[in-house]
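Let us work through a complete example step by step.
Step 1: write down the sequence.
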Amino acid sequence: MRKMYDETNPESILEYAKKLIGLTFNDVLERDAEPLSEAIFVRETAVYDYKSDKAKGSLGHILEKHYFHYEINSDSSPDFAEAGIELKATPMKRNKNGSYSAKERVVITVIDYMSVIYETFESSHLRRKCFLTLLIYYLYIQGIDKLNFPIKYVHLFQIPDEDLAIIEADFYAIVKKVKDGKAHELSEGDTLYLGACTKGATAATSLRSQPYSETLAKQRAFCFKTSYMTYVLNNYVIPGKATYEKISYTGDFEESILNKINAKVGLTVEELMVEYGLTYEKRSKSIESNLVFRILGLKSNRAEEFVKAGIVVKTIRLSPNDSLKETVSFPAFDFIELANEKWEDSHIYNYLSETKFLLVAFKKDESYREYEKAKDFSGMDRHLRLHFATFWNMPISDIENEVYTVWKRTQDVLREGLRVVDRGSRRSNNFPKISESRVCHVRPHARDSKDVLPLPTGGEFTKQSFFLNNTYVRDEIMKKYHGAGEGTAGR
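Step 2: predict the structure and record it as tokens.
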């Protein structure tokens, strides 16, 4: 079939692509062939080929074959080679507050562990594939046939220079890990905008050789992280750009952030509040996080670089002997979704594998006991001292072993039926307990007993969440703290 665009001209390709807006993938198939009998054959063949949930990227393949009319290939050249444009069809979702976010990462190209160590960023397959991207965002709607997903936005995206510098640094960070013989330890959380994600339906069992280690590593691909694609969607694609604050930094991003925070080590919360003009209203852990943002020169938690990189700020309160009482929680999970999800598509796997945390520890000094005895929480909170800051992401081995075991136990409980036992004023259940894993457990995460969600086996139950064990978080922080050198507090 004759192509209705100039495949050498980016503007011609873009204008033709914009005609997709408002169509579903079914519409694309039905318009692809004449007469009607042929159209039906084309559609039925496409449904057979593409409808399977295992067919990753299948909707993009429909556009390649049935709209742009070029044969699907897996070589290192961009899809529209003469124009230097790569095509990426990617899902977006509507959030509960009405905003939109990317539903998943955008996979760019498979990492060849054996050859990537000899590439520079400029000469790499990755650079050729991501220089200019035709982004086609379609709306994911739970519960409907994916061929009925509507195409919402089309945008020709060129990576801004400031982002390209970070992506280049991410590329070399991934390559360094391969050169260090640690390809099997790669995780998306290692980097900021560019990630190394598992690739393919058999990624969990598809193991590859690496050059500097006998240990086999999972097949992985370079990808733009979900957080970065959400930023691109809201800042470049959707009309009426979202507003973010920028962090002023020079040189290495992470080092610059830590230098800013650790320059204030030893100051109390009260001293920092005076310095940044904040007032104490009531006991709240947000006091510390608000101070962290002020130290970074931000008035809110909408830091552009944090949004792009999926960086989450978590403040920790350590006792004088470095023990940690609080556990670290994640958003409450949907019981029905968790019961039906696959591990590598699960919320907790993707969250932990992609997220980089900025952990900031505040430490109680000896005087806090006096305030605690007097139940003067205002005084106790004010005398917390900034102790240490570090970037941290969970090691992939902990995610794939400890977290997986707890997730699987939780899924089994939900599938087989939650058991609840009333013990007077308290109720116990058979979700994984803190004693069952050194890393995480499940416990309630609700406003009150009426804050519930439906169970897959019927009935409702109080919202639950995965929590990182306090001892695990303490140990991970201490590794970073002692690694940076006590006395310097990471400076």
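Step 3: interpret the result. The chain has a mean pLDDT of 88.
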